Amino acid sequence: MDKKKVAILGASGYTGSELLRFLLVHPNVEVAHLTAEKHAGKMISDVFPHLTGFLGLELKPLKPKSIPKDIDVVFAALPHGTSAKVIKELFERDIKIIDLGADFRISPKNYKKWYGEHPCPELIKQAVYGITELNRDKIKKAKLVANPGCYPTSSILGLAPILKNKIADESSIIVDSKSGVTGAGRSPSLDYHYSEVNEGIKAYKVGEHRHMPEIEEALSNYSGLKVDVSFTPHLIPMDRGILSTIYVNLKKKITTKKLIELYEEHYQDERFVRISSQNTYPSTNQVRGSNYCDIGMKVNSSNNTAVIVSVIDNLVKGASGQAVQNMNVMLGFEEDAGIETTPIFP
Description:
Rossmann fold, Dihydrodipicolinate Reductase, domain 2, about 30% helix, 7-stranded parallel β-sheet, 7-stranded mixed β-sheet
């Protein structure tokens, strides 16, 4: 079988680096075109020395018309707004597009509220929200996939079974998420200097983080309920990983054992979701560098509530790994092609 040719737009960030890590060992694709505005003209190995000897491509300026005609798949790892403008130019071509930015994840109304005017709102309806485990059948037929945000991935996978089965009160969900510093991207900023981050943990964008409407919309669409989430992100001094602790009020009595069984049944055919055994709760270090989402839970029978703990690697299942998983579904490859790797430990 001829290999499909892939382009990465915005290849010099952490997301681009992880995409390359998986695509370079993928049996069915060839990385053929890379762009990076700040590093145009440099070789990819100059920007990422760890790729020396693996790929000899020069980074090109971001010009949609310059993307070769034989490219089959485009991964867009670009800032919001920029991504939509580029995708608008590419959409008429016979090409699959996976957008790792925020431009096609939420409705035009919510996008305008949280981000401002959208460059091509008409394409939002053409996009499929790319949590593979929830929307696989739609992703198979999609031309444009909106890859989810990292916080939403951990939150949505943690909540989907309990909401789909109408067990949790959808109007009073609390999501407390903690992320490593790579979630802020690779561009320098005072807030993410070593001495600003090390030896501390802080909440930020309390009640106003742009991932909150994404979580609510995705879960509402999936469950058929009007989901309301109180979401607070935190920055913690580690490179990568997200841990979301989710608190829900229960509509009916259920034991921890039965809730675990419900999650196991819901995700029984999912390669990249693992359910922890009773009285065991996952850590980010058990999914590091991998495309897994690990979920543990506990029911408090005294007040009829449940706590769900969901962990992912923000750069993999929360970004690049999930993007490759979606590409595999779109192109009819084995779903774990290129991303079937064990987590890195320690």
